[in-house]
Amino acid sequence: MAETIFMSLGTIAVLSAVFCILQRNALASAIWLVLTMLSLAGMYLILGAPFIAAIQVLVYTGAIMVLFIFVIMLLNLGEGGSDIRGPVARAGGLVLTVGLASFLLRLGGYDPAQLAFELTGTTDLTAADVFSAAEAGRQAAESQGVVGAVAGPLFSTYLIPFEVTSILLLAAIIGAVVLAKRRV
């Protein structure tokens, strides 16, 4: 049952991402992206990560998409022409799509032991031996809880990239306001 729901949510996520890319209207594209993010949150729930699912909904689907929609409305983007022009661009897109789909289908049969074998070339090691960082993260989550396991590295190891990202988002908002003010 869980596999069926997971596959359904995955299909919805992929299709809504494709529709997000193919939309000519920026606001409709943002709405399709919201559906993609909500499907990902559902997949996180099925995988047993409710904290990440909640963060996905609150931060990405809630805050960032509201920001995107606000900027789109602030800039008053109307109907735009398609960026896909001519048969050459469409053929290139089709080739890329088929290549990506075949790659993803190939990855569908992988399990951690097979990936560990491809990385090391031996069957003597387990996946936990090869992916020791993932095992350490799992043990940290068990010992201090999921929130502590996420917050610890976020506010120690990744503090600078986290703050740089927030500054970039602030710069994007200011840039959108400046661009909108020039039109008025």
Fold blueprint:
Elements: H1 2-22, H2 26-46, H3 50-75, H4 86-107, H5 112-120, H6 127-130, H7 132-154, H8 159-183
Helix pairs in contact: 1-2, 2-3, 3-8
The parts where pLDDT drops under 50 for at least 5 residues are none
Number of helices: 8
Name the CATH architecture of the largest domain: Up-down Bundle
User: What is the third-level CATH name, the topology of the largest domain?
Assistant: Four Helix Bundle (Hemerythrin (Met), subunit A)
Largest sheet: none
CATH class of the largest domain: Mainly Alpha
Report the radius of gyration as a whole number of Å: 21 Å
Query: Outline, from the CA principal axes?
Result: globular
Strand content: under 5%
Q: Which superfamily, in CATH terms, is the homologous superfamily of the largest domain?
A: NADH-ubiquinone/plastoquinone oxidoreductase chain 6, subunit NuoJ
Number of strands: 0
Span of the ends, CA to CA: 54 Å
Q: Roughly how much helix do the residues carry, as a percent range?
A: over 70%
Overall number of structural domains: 2
Q: Structural class, from helix and strand content?
A: mainly alpha
What order do the helices and strands follow?
HHHHHHHH
Taking all residues together, what is the mean pLDDT? 77
Explain the overall architecture.
82% of the residues lie in helices and 0% in strands. The chain folds into two domains: 78 residues, Up-down Bundle (Four Helix Bundle (Hemerythrin (Met), subunit A)), CATH 1.20.120; 74 residues, no CATH class. The protein is globular and about 65 Å long. The longest helix is centred in the middle third of the chain and has 26 residues. The protein has 184 residues and is mostly helical. Helix 1 runs antiparallel to helix 2, helix 2 packs antiparallel against helix 3 and helix 3 runs parallel beside helix 8. The protein has eight helices and no strands. The termini are far apart.
